Target: Phosphatidylinositol 3,5-bisphosphate-binding protein
Amino acid sequence: MNIGRPVPRASSGAHDGTAPELLYATFNQDYGCFAIGTQTGFRIFNSDPYKEKMRREFKDGGIGIVAMRYRSNYLAFVGGGRNPRFPPNKVMLWDDASAKIVAELEFRSDVLNVQLQRDRIVVVLRNKCIICSLEVKPRHLHAFETADNDRGAMAISGASESSILAFPGRQKGHIQIVDLNSCIGAPPAQDAAAPAAAPAATPPPAAQRARSRSRGSFSADASAPQAVNVHPANINIIAAHATSVSALAVSADGAMVASASEKGTLIRIFSTMNGRLLHELRRGVDRADIHSIAFSTDGTRLCVSSDKGTVHIFNLEAREAVGQQPPAASGGPGAAAGNRHSNLKFMKDLLPKYFSSEWSFAHFRVANEVRCICGFGSERNSVIVLCADGTAQKYSFDSYQGHCVREWYRKFI
Model:
């Protein structure tokens, strides 16, 4: 499951604690690994236990976006930094087994976000979300219009059997939900990319590379090639917020989508099947920039990081079964056991909505209070944080009292 957004950086890192060589950081689909893009290349790490797995240094430029495909040898790059290795409007598919670019996709505007699935590439532009096949010669499968999405908000479920995609709608504050498995069939066997389950997938056959010269390519300016297994998309629209959507996350099984608006005070969780509001979680009272939202792999917890330098952890275990209607007497989203509530909640019908909010049962402030993204660790009660100062940190938390303890702190750049 993906985080979907980079470690955020200010325009200048000289006075905000940002590591100047760090351009991007993201987890893979299950938080077991993370990747960083730097001014001179990229690196891959095991999250917990922490260990650098590999690095590539380039002589001719930096990597501004990197996307992992589970634990396979395929990654997607977009150039960035002082001297970008690739143009900002191109996505380059890298095969680390052969240490070379095997395919590229070119678009009319800068790429803001990229995610890989086993057989698909999802690319976010400022006003569009595009799905292409993941193969030597990528095929255009679908394109969806969005409202202005300068943050590149997008999320896709991480489980191999699920493929629920969430991205901003055409109207401000709306979310579009698409089940890619229902509108895109599997690519032909002879063209499909190698299975991602293998630690080092077999690179595309040399004959295929020869037919496409040194690499395959796709241009968004060209008419879409004939894609035989593509069907019309069935889109579910959710009116989530009054202001623009700034961050999204989809649970691993695709049953839930979490969203935050540019205001950053509330996190709302909806059923992806019927759009019903399941939870309304309050991060705080003051406006904040939400940098990441992440579900635990079993969908029972949620962690949120913001520009306040804090990470909040919410419990979702007591939710009603997704897709079922709540009891008639409940009148709203289910309350999760363990989350904090106002002492005046019993008067929620008479007081402002603030008093009926669910608050995190645990939260902590990261070292140096720098901007960060978060994901869950291999142990149930743990969170891994990647910070803009070039550090990875692990925190454990108590399920009952909510006490948080930093377990380790590592410099990865």
